[in-house]
């Protein structure tokens, strides 16, 4: 559920004025948070440029703390992302330039990310909240010494439930890139 919300799979996680709208946009008038640059040095540079240009509703710059940003990639991109974040030299560079991104962002990946071309960078806790009505509950009923359990060969019954949802409270701290 959380990954589905982060990738804005159903375009229902962001409701700024009571109506669901797309969380990531390349043409929003009050801030662009998506770029169509493939993952790599150029893609991360494009996202960092979008971060620097992000403004709030008053036109003031939005502060995005690089130290608390995380890079989220699909499992297929995990090795490439790790290499980019840990290599001394830029992997894409022909002249062995120093790697600006070395150690800059922690890399997280998920098998639930279904597209191998999309990636996200930003301060996820600033934009996303998990709203919980009631937490994960596990209820058990022991049926060993009951007449019903004896008649139906039931040893125990289990019931698991939770009620919560992920919501986006802002769009200005997480950025999406894709090829």
Outline the structure in words:
The chain has about 180 residues and is of the alpha/beta class. The protein has one domain. Helices cover about 20% and strands about 25% of the residues. The strands form two sheets. A five-stranded mixed sheet has the order 1-7-4-2-3. It has a two-stranded antiparallel sheet with strand order 5-6.
How far apart lie the N and C ends? 24 Å
> Strand percentage, roughly?
25-35%
Let me know the average pLDDT.
90
Overall geometric form: elongated
Strand order of the largest sheet: 1-7-4-2-3
In brief, what are we looking at here?
Helix content is 21%, strand content 27%. The chain is of the alpha/beta class and 179 residues long. Strand 2 (70-74), helix 3 (78-86) and strand 3 form a beta-alpha-beta unit.
Quick tags:
179 residues; alpha/beta; 5-stranded mixed β-sheet; two-stranded antiparallel ribbon; 5 helices; 7 strands; elongated
């Amino acid at each position: 559920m959380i990954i589905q919300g982060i990738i804005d799979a159903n375009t229902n996680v962001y409701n700024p004025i009571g109506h669901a709208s797309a969380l990531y946009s390349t043409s929003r008038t009050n801030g662009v948070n998506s770029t169509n640059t493939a993952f790599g040095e150029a893609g991360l540079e494009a996202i960092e440029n979008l971060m620097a240009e992000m403004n709030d509703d008053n036109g003031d710059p939005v502060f995005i703390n690089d130290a608390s940003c995380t890079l989220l990639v699909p499992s297929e991109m995990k090795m490439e992302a790790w290499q980019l974040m840990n290599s001394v030299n830029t992997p894409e560079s022909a002249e062995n330039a120093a790697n600006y991104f070395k150690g800059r962002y922690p890399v997280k990946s998920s098998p639930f990310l279904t597209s191998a071309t999309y990636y996200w960078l930003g301060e996820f806790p600033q934009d996303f909240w998990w709203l919980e009505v009631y937490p994960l509950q596990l209820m058990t009923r022991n049926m060993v010494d009951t007449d019903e359990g004896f008649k139906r060969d039931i040893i125990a019954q289990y019931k698991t439930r939770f009620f919560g949802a992920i919501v986006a409270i802002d769009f200005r701290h997480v950025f999406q890139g894709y090829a």
